[in-house]
Write the structure tokens for this entry.
Amino acid sequence: MTFTLLGEPAAIDLLNTLKTAHTPAVDQLDAPGALAEFWRFQSERDPAITALNAEDTRSLRTLVGALIRAIDEGSAPDTPVLTAANTILFAAPVQSYLSVREGHLHVEYTTTARTAEEATRAKLILSALELSDAATAGRLRHCPAEDCSQLFIATNAKRRWCTAAGCGNRARVSRHAARARVSPRPAR
């Protein structure tokens, strides 16, 4: 299984495993081995993350999606979403500490969760909450391609597409074809 887009914050990566631009929605986690591949990728980025089973992953994705939508809209999540997120965070208290990576100061988080699964759930909720700065700055973006539902963090102001090679290239080809249809060809 090859995911369309991985490497965004973990919460966005999780949300992007459900393609909602299609009817019916396409769950990329349904592909053979996809669930294991998704969690393997996340644990390589953060060794404190462990794989969750399919049911827990989908439940967490729904919760993370609701949080991200509220953050993106600048609104408060519904009470059941807030309660569920707080339940996860209370089960895995988080402590912050400072570290230096590549010469820069970073705030890191660790949890005193009883299980690796509790810690993983908390890390994904925190990943969603950390998107509020990006949303406020207009860097949390939705790919504008009609057949794409991917979210991403724009690392530069000009980034418009989830992937330049995928949706961005299709848009450029489409614009070129439209111009070619409109422009008369020179006579030979």
User: Anything to note?
Assistant: The chain has a mean pLDDT of 88. The radius of gyration is 19 Å. Residues 54-73 form the longest helix (20 residues). The beta strands are 18-19, 26-27, 94-101, 104-111, 140-142, 151-153.
